[in-house]
Amino acid sequence: MKCMNKHTDTISEVVATMVQGATNWNTELTQEWLQEYVDDWVSFYRKRTADGEVASYIPILEEANRDHLGISIVGNNGMTVRSGDADIPFTIQSISKVLTFVVACMERGLSYILDRVDVEPTGGSFNSIMHLEISRVEKPFNPFVNAGAITVTSMLEGKTSDQKLEPFYELLEKMLDYRPALNVDVYESERDSSMRNRAIGYYLLETGFLESDLNVTLETYFKQCSVEITIDDLARIGMIIANDGENPANQEEIIPRQVARLAKALMLTCGMYDASGKFAAYVGVPAKSGVSGGIIALSPSRARDETLPFMSGCGIGVYGPALDDKGNSIAGIRLLRHIANQWDLSVF
Ligand SMILES: NC(=O)CC[C@H](N)C(=O)O
């Protein structure tokens, strides 16, 4: 087998050699080799955390360590590569919007939700009110900015926040084999400080978009954002969405295919707020970020992929609480960009 040189070979070249040549190609060797690569990249991009700031508008989030950077990657065969600060729990924040959207579509049907929330990027910040008012929209722009997400949350079935979130927890449990818990301190910190989201809520109430009581809707929204997860969880959820909602280990359908596909399209066009265009151009994979520094990303499964069979249909979780001015993990984006380019993950 060709001797591997991680400084000169691209990952595709090496894996292509492995696949073509190679009587002794094996998963363990590949994993070891990928691990070395990823370890190098994480230590390189960790320096970029110094260029960002942790979120402070939810006071408790300011306690995060801005030097942290970790990544977890799960292939469609379960192969896992994790590196850096991979064991730090953090709250899911806006990444929850992908899951409440999925749950709402499963409960109400896709067309019910799409009649009430659009699928257009805003080009504005995640918590903008201005867009709603200036454009006099018929419905909120998309489910991944706060106005659209709060509207989706109002459409979840149930009268109390706990009833509304039960199917959300059940979906998480099905994907992760455990039930993540609410971080009560983060929930209370957001509940007591989130005047902007209350303003958005009142505007949605006035304009007739909300389908549940305002206070219950906001309580549900703050709770969904405060569920604690890890990058391994994000990678696993990403891997299932990448595979059109199916668990590749046993072909069980966890999310209906059409809903998973729509979620991917929305992640690609709206997942990184007003940096979504740049992210699509330079990274090119569906992703969704949150203000605690998490990013979920994925490489949709592609039959054509011969060089990296186990990375077609992979999920990626990143944690790096130092954020850029759009509210996305500053080092996390750079790390993802590097990996997507090296491994040819772009959907384009
Ligand atoms: N970008 C985010 O992660 C925002 C989520 C946060 N809970 C908020 O609504 O303000």
UniProtKB/TrEMBL annotation:
It catalyses: L-glutamine + H2O = L-glutamate + NH4(+). Keywords: Acetylation, Hydrolase. Signal peptide: none annotated. InterPro entries: Beta-lactam/transpept-like, Glutaminase. It comes from the Bacteria. Substrate binds at S94, N146, E190, N197, Y221, Y273, V291. The keyword Acetylation applies. Pfam families: Glutaminase. GO terms for molecular function: glutaminase activity. Its EC number is 3.5.1.2. The keyword Ribosomal protein does not apply. Homotetramer. Belongs to the glutaminase family. NCBIfam families: Gln_ase, PRK12357.1. This is Glutaminase.
